[in-house]
Amino acid sequence: MVLELARPRPIWQIMFSTHHTDVGLLYLVFSLLAMFVGGAMAIALRVELFAPGAQLIQDAMTYNRLFTAHGTTMIFLFLLPSAAAVGNYLVPIMVRYKDMAYPKLNAIAFWMIPPAAALVWLGMADFGWYANPPYSVISAPAPAAEMWIFGLKVLGVSSILSSINFVVTILKCKHPDLSLGKVPLLAWSFLTSSIIVLAAMPTFAAALLMLLTDRLGVSGFFNPAVGGDPIAYQHLFWFTFHPEVYVLVIPAIGMMYEIIPRFSRRPIFSHSSGVAAFIILALVSFASWAHHMFATGMSFTEKTVFMVGTLAAVPASAMHVFNFLATMWNGRIKFATPMMFAVGGIALFFAAGAGGVVNTAMPLDFITHDSYWVVGHFHLFVFGTIAFGTIGFVYYLFPYITGRMYNEKWGVVHFILAFVGACITFFTQHILGLFGMPRRIYDYPEIDAWISMNQLVSVGAMIILVGMVIFLGNMIYSMAKGKPANLEDPFGLGGKYYYPFAQRNPQHGEGGY
Amino acid sequence: MAHSNWAEWIYLGVVTALLIYVGAEAWNVERIIDHAPADAEIIIVTGQQWFWTFEHEDGTKEVGELHLKKDHAYKFEVTSIDVNHDFNIPEFVVLMDAIPGRINTVWFSPNEAGEFEIQCREYCGLIHYNMRAKLYVEDV
């Protein structure tokens, strides 16, 4: 696509570039860095929970800070930027435009992320990624909490800017001959997820400001001691962050829509059903936020409404799964690494969705709420589905970015370790939740079932870690020493690729890619 | 669309039917367990960083432990005096957020005698992991 390594240039040229492939590269490198940082935090948490008593982390405060930073890092610094990376690379090409609609805005949106990351990582707040008041108002230590609030504020603005850019690029800059219905599904996924961000994110921005003024003592929106209501925050928070789940998952599904037809050597079973499912998901994502709050003392009617709203998201998700399976049916499938991650991601997506139905069935929610079940459930989404789609796509883009092939054998080993590790870790966490273990705990009593399951979960996490180290090694080694890729068809699939890899970057000079 | 989509419609019909079944069943169960029996004894549960206080109807207070009788119905009025907690007896699927400024209710009737764990299920700070109490259900 841009062949960074074949035509090296000074790093500042990439850093100050506004070209979409350069910004995409920055997003990609930063998000992978954040993934390893967040992953290291997860490993520290899992080592600590391997057995009762202090293992690696000596005090609860450090543990609480770590799980907060882990969640914030993975969602805002890994998953969102990695989706933006893929979108930056491919959306302009798919709508046949020379760049994003607003290239400078695009670069600004990226460069807001590293300072925000610095605020989050240097502050290390301790109130969980949801900053639940009144704890976050009256009890969380300063200045960590303020730094987290400002960091998230910046990240929110950044994601609004990049969403505006995607929406305008797709709707206004697409080639006049290309009707919206024919826009590839990956670009459609960015259109729908960007619209969700634009509708949902301002609510959280407001909630963050209210939280900040509450902490400063000049207001009392969420502080019951001065007449506020902590539940109001939860509504504002989840009104943004339940749709945000779809903001993360929809681009990952879009990436699978790119990989699966390609590696099945068949066109997508139904383009229109994919588009319809994206639009339905975007709409119903706003109908289910309060299913996170069944245990806050909601009335029977409220719970019923939000249960129905949540169940309504399932058929649209099922349409995607059907579309994938129907595309693969009778296909001449080549199970290269990107395809393996995409198919593994679908399997875990299905499992995560089934667990979600259990969560939202009202009486069952009172078994799973705030237990390790929930931890296992959403990790099947964020790791099993979204990170799988993203990592698969990183393998898929690798030859286009570097001009070289990654090592296929080690890629397959990475997939097997990631898949087996994810199953061991996250399915066991579901069962651990049914045994009553609460989430966000530094230590646990010596209950035999809890100990053995926690050990299993930690072993699973280590398997994922080994896979990720192999991934990193494979990327670094192959960048320098990998086989030169055949850019017309790096995966040997035959057939024409949707988009040219030869998107021209003006900074590469005349005749360059 | 060049091809027929009947398989997808059948599949969607099956998925939707399953969801309607799950939703209706959940609605039906929740409707029944939402109402505490009229003769349930009221216990005021107060969470604070990082312990539980229980006040019986006759005014007796217990801290860190709760004594109940087997096969009696109890209705907990759950609240908090500082930050959010969550009152949870995993063995009996009793779970309700303790939120300052609000009183949430949840009821149960222990059908088994013995000693059970009470824990906090909502993150509440430093000692959240050890915000525990004991439930003693006595056979009378």
From TrEMBL, chain A:
Pfam families membership: COX1
Organism: Marine Group I thaumarchaeote
Keywords carried by this UniProt record: Membrane, Transmembrane, Transmembrane helix
GO cellular component annotations of the record: membrane
Keyword Transmembrane among UniProt keywords: yes
Domain Cytochrome oxidase subunit I profile: 6-488
Single GO term (MF): heme binding
Membrane spanning residue stretches: 25-47, 67-95, 107-130, 150-171, 183-212, 232-254, 275-294, 306-326, 338-358, 378-398, 410-436, 456-477
Protein's UniProt keywords contain Ion transport: no
Name by which UniProt lists this protein: Cbb3-type cytochrome c oxidase subunit I
Single GO biological process annotation from the record: aerobic respiration
InterPro entries: Cyt_c_oxase-like_su1_dom (IPR023616), Cyt_c_oxase-like_su1_sf (IPR036927), Cyt_C_Oxase_1 (IPR000883)
TrEMBL record, chain B:
Location(s), subcellular: Membrane
GO cellular component, one term: membrane
Entry keyword annotation includes 4Fe-4S: no
Molecular function GO terms recorded: copper ion binding; cytochrome-c oxidase activity
Keyword field: Copper, Electron transport, Membrane, Metal-binding, Transmembrane, Transmembrane helix, Transport
BP term (GO), one: ATP synthesis coupled electron transport
Location (main, coarse): membrane
Transmembrane regions: 6-24
Domain Cytochrome oxidase subunit II copper A binding positions: 38-140
Family note: Belongs to the cytochrome c oxidase subunit 2 family.
Protein name: Cytochrome oxidase subunit II copper A binding domain-containing protein
Organism the protein comes from: Marine Group I thaumarchaeote
